[in-house]
Amino acid sequence: MKHKSIFGYGVTTTPLVAFLNKQGEKLYIYDDKFKDISTDEKGNTFLPSSAFESASSSMEILSPGIPPYHPLIQKAQHRISEYDYFDMLLNDEAQKPLNIWISGTNGKTTTTEITTLLLSPFGAKSGGNIGTPLATLYEEKAPVWVLETSSFSLHYTQKACPHIYALLPVREDHITWHGSFENYVSDKLKPLTLMNAQSYAIIPDELSSHPTLKAYKGHLITYKDSVDLAQKLDLPIERIVFKEPFLLDALIALGIAKVGFKCEDIERLNLFKIGKHRIEEFYDTQDRLWVDDSKGTNVDATIEAIRRYADKHLIIILGGDDKGANLTPLFDFMQGKDICIYAIGSNEARLADFAKKYALPCVPSTTLQKAMELIKQVRKTDDVVLLSPAAASLDQFSSYKQRGEIFVKLALQ
Fold first, then answer.
1. What is the pLDDT of residue 261?
2. Tens digit of pLDDT for each residue in 370-412?
3. Fewer CB atoms near the end CB (10 Å): N or C, the chain?
4. Does domain 280-412 fall into CATH 3.90.190.20?
5. Cut 0.85: pTM above it
């Protein structure tokens, strides 16, 4: 007898498994972390990835983090994304929620959270990478789904699509997973190939020559920057309290609310509080400024953080697992600025080589603890110390959150 299979057992798929168990399903769950076959009290079977046999599987629902080159994906014959699965359950168009998807390299979470705040009077709830699991959104019959959507989810989604799609600027990221920057961009634009003529898309102008945009049937709004978007949508930029890079996030969220709901609630927008570890400023007992941007895990995010403090003497902690990203744009941006780099993590030597090439001072420090010890010996009162690693954290930390928390603790000691 064939069964449903779940690929990957983590944050995304755990609520899905619970949902399917309530429907009477007993699932086969495959994950690299399982070394032996076991079962739980719900009748689910946990198996190593190597145990998967496509002949016994009727459907494979994927955790989006599993890359296309993984053996599980290669053997699957009936794979489906979580987005497509719930779209299939919502087969009655009259009962489907209004779907808003938000993607991009940086700013997805902030834009999703602001959009959800603006549309909360209309019953909006956030999901996807953040917020409420899709299974819960489905069970609660939320009328508006605001989904922070990764390029991984978009890659595997073949049928589901949003009514409104907003894309923040796309910069080099996840290249190993996608195979190339061109593939990454194509996945980011994929929803446009599935959306109808009544849909709306807010897309960076730099992608306007891409074939996918030229073929898009819906209402297309392109933007060069925050000022351009505000002008095109007639949004009162002067009344918005946020600075860049959050200003663009706020304007995109406000644009979604305006085109989708004719809502332009600036007062509600300005109540939003930026999340932790994203250009989060704090002061120590000596009134010295420290900035936790541990969520700055790629080059573009770090450039935006540096831009905020370009008129200061900046001490920046860089480093971690950069996944082979192109660091040239970051060092091009830093060149000529009053910056000193403290390099940590697995790409420490690579950062030191770049710094030498660009004649930027760099102190190889290996660990965050060592970097902070050295910085405290030399920093002056007016210096700004910024943790914005332009790299993932998992080489030395459990998450960017842990990295940020340790940075704050060390700064305040």
1. 97
2. 999 999 999 999 999 999 999 999 999 999 999 999 999 999 9
3. N
4. yes
5. no
